[in-house]
Amino acid sequence: MRWLLAAAALFAGVALAQTPAVPPAVSLQLLSEHAVEGMNGGNLSGLAWCGDTLWAVSDRDDDVVYRLQPDEAAGSVWQAEADRFVSPPVPDTGLSWGSKARARVSGLLRGGEEDFEGITCDKFGNRYLVSEAYAAVLKLPFSGDPAWLELPSSLLRQARASGMLMDMNALYEGIAIDPEGKRLWLAAERQRRGLLAVHRDASTWKCGDSCVLLSEGGNVEPPAELGDDQPRSPDFSDLVWYGDKLFTLERLEHQICRRSLVNGAAERCWSFTAELLTPERRYDSQYGGLAEGLAIDDKGAWIGLDNGDHARADGDSRPRVLRFAAPAGGWLGGK
Fold first, then answer.
1. Is 18 contained in some domain?
2. May I ask which residue range the UniProt record assigns to the signal sequence (predicted)?
3. Is the peptide bond before 258 cis (omega within 30 degrees of 0)?
4. Is residue 330 one of the residues assigned to a domain?
5. Residue 175 and residue 181: Cα distance in Å, rounded?
6. Which of 48, 53, 251, 263 could make an S-S bridge to 119, C-beta 3.0–4.6 Å?
């Protein structure tokens, strides 16, 4: 027995030695900040670039995505333009009757039964929305009617076998797709958080060897600037494909991390703590000013804040988009 334990410890040590440590997060430079008008209740829950248009989604709207026209002039206010659609009935994704009933009741009480938490685009102009309430993905094609993707039934089973997607309001929180529209990734929000992947074979979506790239549990300490040293479950609040890498928006830790497409492991992280937690940007409510949307380009990152109709310290109750400069060496530097 002792030699088995010693061997296990040896192999564990080798595995840890082969896993590169993630360098400390480097602070991002804020370039501009923009209030957004015209979104329902300030609930900006996802961002994505599609061609030359920045799109936003609200988790309180089941029938609209918002077109934003970025103006990087300091202090410029953006007007959200509604693009409406009609989605078909949500398919059976394997959730229990109770989960679906709670989603319907929640939608009646607060709005947004489908609870769209993320948006992504392929190079053909097709947009994809992820529904947290129903663990489903809606495709808004460049032309034609919206349709729900037929995701593999094993996706939910494997996620739950890994400890993810177990609690209401802690399901899918982010979505990313490659430019060809053939590889799709989903971010499980928290308790446990993780990354899942499927690929398209002709017209059928399948898992590879496994749907699960990453599953993480445990707790982390929030940034000291929050004034709360109680360890909490880490989370993902959005997901982006850029340069053949995945980028996660990590709400609790106030950072963006670059991750491997192979196993979801973090490679580099960048912090926006210092800018987001300045006195004038603080909210009394724990549900205001949360980093929920992420878009990345060669020049930098756009981070969307969901204020949930709460006012921040300076009295403003509009959602915000913050523009940060790309890190020195670019998002793919320091491989």
1. no
2. 1-17
3. no
4. no
5. 12
6. 48
